[in-house]
Amino acid sequence: MRFVDFDVDEFLQAPLTARVATSGPTVRPTWFLWEDGAFWILTGPWSRLPGHVEADPRVALTIDVCDVSSGLVRQVIARGRGVLMPFDVARGRRKLVRYLGADEMRWDSRFRDYLAGEPGARGTVWLQVRPERMTAADLSYRVADEQEPDPEDRAG
User: Fold this and answer.
1) Which of 16, 52, 135, 152 is the most exposed place for a label (fewest CB within 10 A)?
2) pLDDT tens-digit profile of 27-69?
3) How far apart are CA 34 and CA 129, in angstroms?
4) pTM to 2 decimals?
């Protein structure tokens, strides 16, 4: 595995999907915000995630891209302890803007609802994971040009 050959912070700013693993094991896809050296995941009573973290705070995440048309393959794997924290609307807005764009009127109402009223009263919280260990790898490869003839075809 070739380690960090790209800007990890820049990579984690892209609107990618993380897979979050808790004990059990349980793995689920999620949107996240990478901010202040931590992953922030919006969760609440609609999810089993808070209960899993309360029972065992060990959390692992993987964020990756694999584009076979360009050969871009990058991954970040992080492990740490999950902490449930009060939800704050400003951070929630930053996270949702990243995935849905700045025009909140174009968002599905369920996303706008996360930011309306008193999110804490609905049980909305953040799962914060500050990595204790994080690895990044660029496994990208060169995609052969379609115009390149096969060497076998040239032998004759």
Assistant:
1) 152
2) 999 999 999 999 999 999 989 999 999 999 999 999 999 999 8
3) 10
4) 0.82
